[in-house]
Design brief:
- This protein is α/β, with parallel strands linked by helices.
- 45% of the residues lie in helices and 20% in strands.
- The chain folds into 2 domains: 171 residues, Rossmann fold (3-Layer(aba) Sandwich); 133 residues, Response regulator (Rossmann fold), CATH 3.40.50.
- The chain contains 11 helices and 14 strands.
- Helix 2 packs across helix 10.
- The structure holds alpha-L-rhamnopyranose.
- The site of alpha-L-rhamnopyranose has 14 residues, from helix 8.
Length: 331
């Protein structure tokens, strides 16, 4: 066989091998979270695995940094690009800082979506919000106001200061405060970085700086546990009500001991499940992520993208002593 012919046969053979390999291998979808060791994201991963099982040809890579920072997440994204994953579904620690790394991923043919905590539109193909942002903002204030008929001082203990989701909810909360909750006085917003130790210190700091504080609102499942533990340890049950967004399985004991009257959240399992479906719709089914497009999210239903290619799932659900037991067994 001539050298040229040999080369052509080899090339055809490797092309066939490549095509076969592409079909034989499962679709690799990376679920990138703000930080590992957070029960909320572990629950989302449960949903992601459920979706992978239903879809049949998907492998989930559940990953994220140990600390909830954008820098650490950029390293994770770069390593996923090197691993040649098919899709990245990220809950971002910063809306802008991740854009260059995620753009690089998209240039290499990787589908990129954000979920939970968004990335700026140029850094992703679509974004999935757990619920309407304005509604979450109003809910976190209402949760405090419902138990403060006379009004009073409240403070917010958030996640990281660059977290897209918490910042959007806090902005929405501040917007509706004067008109809808005139007796609620927001005295401070502090940041616990979704780190238990830092959140504990920040909660202690709030109680020290604001002795008249009536409620701590933590729109983060990590911060809300830390704050309720501090209120419990400092014998402030009945004086300071802790509320916000909490995972029932982690928070039930604080509803039980009275350090909190009520909290809210959406279903984190459904959120992770839906994020995987959306990544699959774009990466494998080649559905176009464009304003007005309706995409399938399996057993959860369908979502329609708005003019920023974002969609929202269901309204948040409230948990108190009447129902937290039941939900604590699910997530
Ligand atoms: C924490 C994270 C997450 C947020 C929940 C409510 O687990 O900050 O992004 O959605 O709280």
């Amino acid at each position: 066989m001539s050298f040229l012919r040999k080369l052509m046969v080899t090339a055809a053979f490797s092309a066939a091998m490549f095509v076969n390999a592409a079909y034989a291998e499962n679709v690799k979808i990376a679920l990138v979270v703000k930080s590992l060791g957070n029960g909320f994201f572990d629950a989302a991963n449960k949903g992601a695995e459920e979706a992978a099982k239903e879809l049949g040809d998907v492998d989930i890579i559940y990953t994220g940094p140990t600390k909830a920072t954008a820098e650490a997440q950029i390293e994770v994204v770069n390593s996923l690009i090197a691993q040649k994953v098919n899709a990245i579904a990220i809950s971002a620690n910063d809306a802008d800082a991740l854009v260059p790394a995620l753009k690089k991923a998209m240039e290499r043919g990787i589908t990129v979506i954000s979920w939970d905590s968004g990335v700026a539109p140029e850094g992703r193909q679509l974004h999935l919000n757990p619920s309407d942002t304005g509604l979450i903002g109003e809910t976190i204030i209402k949760l405090a106001a419902d138990y403060l008929p006379e009004g009073g001082d409240v403070a917010i203990l958030s996640a990281s200061s660059t977290a897209t989701n918490q910042n959007a909810w806090i902005d929405a909360a501040k917007k509706i405060l004067p008109e809808k909750f005139p007796k609620i006085n927001l005295v401070a917003t502090v940041y616990g970085d979704d780190d238990s130790a830092k959140s504990t210190d920040e909660a202690k700091g709030l109680l020290k700086s604001y002795p008249n504080l009536k409620a701590i609102i933590a729109p983060t499942t990590v911060g809300v546990v830390a704050a309720a533990q501090v209120v419990t340890d400092e014998n402030l049950i009945g004086k300071v009500n802790v509320t916000g967004l909490a995972l029932p399985s982690e928070f039930k004991k604080f509803i039980d001991n009275g350090s909190s009257q009520a909290v809210a959240l959406w279903n984190p399992i459904d959120l992770g499940y839906s994020a995987v479906y959306l990544a699959y719709d774009v990466a494998v089914k080649k559905e176009e992520a464009k304003p007005g497009a309706t995409l399938s999210i399996g057993r959860v239903g369908k979502v329609t993208l708005d003019d920023t290619n974002s969609a929202a799932m269901a309204p948040p659900f409230q948990f108190d002593k009447t129902n937290i037991e039941k939900f604590s067994k699910i997530y």
